[in-house]
Amino acid sequence: MERLQKVMAHAGVASRRASEKLIKEGRVKVNGSVVKEMGINVKKTDLIEVDSIPIVQEQKYYFLLNKPRGVISSADDPKGRKTVVDLLSGVEQRIYPVGRLDYDTTGVIILTNDGELTNQLTHPKYGVEKTYIAKVTGLIDKKAVSRLEKGVVIDGYKTRPAKARIMDVDAKKNTSLVELVIHEGKNHQVKKMLKSVGFPVEKLNRDKYGFLTAEGLQSGEWRELKQFEVNKLKQLVEEA
């Protein structure tokens, strides 16, 4: 069950506020009866009409892409650069990425036309975990890891506590591999966090989005999410 104005908005009739106006004006019917009161809930099987024209609820689609380097995390790009949407060849529905990955960052990104789930997954209050693997310059130590876990100040903002661990240290190449799990999605956040503790990022990959990984997908490959995966994403939001 969902609010009538919300269903109308998702079907592309009008914004929620404009949909409420249509309801107040008596222009909306549910199962043949005019509805004027706010807050009514409807089922997927209910017949909703606006000015006697039935509305069709947009079918929701969910995809997972293993984003390669050099691709923009956007539905389109004014400069004509390749976007994540361009990589989903054969998908005719209008979809858009959930959040962003930097131009040179690789890994898991979700694309969908579900606006509500997109808003929930990207809103910091829900705190869905995102796991990154970073190759950094320098031999990182436990002191730096502890600072990352407690939160560091970037752009005048202190990051929320994170999880961090050292995966590998290469003394010959003067590089380290670090796993960092965050619950936010500030602009260039992972790069800025690691730089703030003295270890600039050379390469960055998002290894997990919640429980989702790019396992089985080569760089640039994608797949449609299974229904149980979509349900689990929604459950993550609800539990938060």
TrEMBL record:
Entries under InterPro entries matching the protein: PsdUridine_s_RsuA/RluB/E/F_cat (IPR042092), PsdUridine_synth_cat_dom_sf (IPR020103), PsdUridine_synth_RsuA/RluA (IPR006145), PsdUridine_synth_RsuA/RluB/E/F (IPR000748), PsdUridine_synth_RsuA/RluB_CS (IPR018496), RsuA_PseudoU_synthase (IPR050343), S4_RNA-bd (IPR002942), S4_RNA-bd_sf (IPR036986)
Top-level enzyme category: isomerase
Record-level Gene Ontology MF annotations: RNA binding; rRNA pseudouridine synthase activity
Parts of the chain that traverse the membrane: none
SUPFAM superfamilies: Alpha-L RNA-binding motif, Pseudouridine synthase
Domain RNA-binding S4 per the UniProt entry, residue ranges: 2-59
UniProtKB keywords: Isomerase, RNA-binding
EC code(s) of this entry: 5.4.99.-
Gene Ontology BP annotations: enzyme-directed rRNA pseudouridine synthesis
An annotated GO cellular component: cytosol
Pfam families registered for this protein in UniProt: PseudoU_synth_2, S4
Similarity-based family: Belongs to the pseudouridine synthase RsuA family.
Protein name, entry field: Pseudouridine synthase
Organism: Alkalibacterium pelagium
Lineage per the UniProt record: Bacteria, Bacillati, Bacillota, Bacilli, Lactobacillales
